[in-house]
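Box S1 | Example of a co-folding query
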Amino acid sequence: MDRFVIRGGVPLAGTVSVSGSKNSMLALMAASLLSEEPVLLQNAARVHDVSTMIRILGALGVEAVWEADDVLRLGGSEPTATEAPYDLVRTMRASFMVLGPLLARCGHARVSLPGGCAIGARPVDQHLKGLEALGAKVELVGGYVEARASRLRGAPVVFDTSTVNGTQNVLMAACLAEGQTRIQNAALEPEVGELIGVLQAMGARIEGAGTDQLTVEGVTRLKGATHRVAGDRIEAGTLLAAAAITGGDVTVTGLCLDQLASVVEKLREIGLELDTRPDRVRVRRTGPLRGVRVTTARFPGFPTDMQAQIMALLCLAPGSSVLTETIFENRFMHVSELQRMGADITVNGRTAIIQGVAGLSGAPVMATDLRASASLLLAGLAARGDTHVMRVYHIDRGYDRIEQKLASLGARIRRIRD
Ligand code: EPZ
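Box S1 (continued) | Returned holo structure for EPZ
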């Protein structure tokens, strides 16, 4: 296992570009199962979760080839299998998104139930509810979901709770169903909108992008497509937070400002100075930080995937901050590690009270999940002395060469292979 060794205290400075969105890519890779023609993704990020999805597609007999450092060519063949194995699905729950496309394309799919993860139970009941509404026969056998449907039929689907991957899973299936599907309470996250755009480029007939009501007129087949993946909004937010916590002056490019409005506003409220353009944000610390209230929410609210990172920053904001996590039930795994670095945080259920401290001190810390690890990286960049972040495979799941990006901004960070 690798670790990062960070010697903190350097204000980051310079310009850095984000990679393509991990979460968009995972849905788009699943969508490639819907067509016998290839799907080409440009600005594709080389993160571990993408490698896992490549292995899942491989297990289904669908090829995925890197044609350049950031160009991934997918599919263009008939799946030769319709089972996504447990040993792969359990390492990355987003694999569950192959269920809808496989079912729609092949009439059958057997996908392992993803099970919980570090941040919560993460049920998939809404995914299954939507697919059953489209006429699928769904059974749970030996920890696997077995779904069958000779031809899916369009139908009304109303999600009890907003779900990003649930919306994407059912939407992809609906594209090849017979007749009209109306999805209500659809997720509004940008990754849903990006998937809709690519599905439309593939020939799908979808109305309502950007709203929580999607109407799909099923078609019999879909074409291939070429798509440039949007910049990763969470990586962008993480890099902005890195500049903020070190008191630096950094411009992050390759992002989509509309996808970051809540993060930009919160950083301003904390006391950072931000200059914004549609595809870039410059952040500087020109005065003291201030404690604030943060409550995670569905898009366009403050994203849960930025909660751990903003907490690290608030550890150094004078006064009190109140941070409430409303999406996942166990997404404070970073708190105990931040406390070991001198942070003053009290957790009460889904709310954390943070008292700003004068400084953090470097320590050996353990990464537990993707965004908690990012939080520890940020704390290490600001801490006095050395921080060793262990188990950085968590970070590699969702950040493409993050230590190179941070080092290019002046950070003293190196990867050590344990
Ligand atoms: C997506 O996960 C993202 N992952 C997550 O990013 C992100 O945190 C999450 O959306 C919320 O924005 C990918 O896109 C690959 P949800 P998803 O279903 O779709 C409940 C990261 O760090 N729920 O929108 O799985 C569930 O209990 C990852 O990049 C049901 O109850 O999240 C949980 O509380 C982490 N039944 C909440 O919704 C269901 O059938 C999760 O929201 C589905 C979800």
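The chain has a mean pLDDT of 96. The chain has two domains: 2-19+231-417, 22-228.
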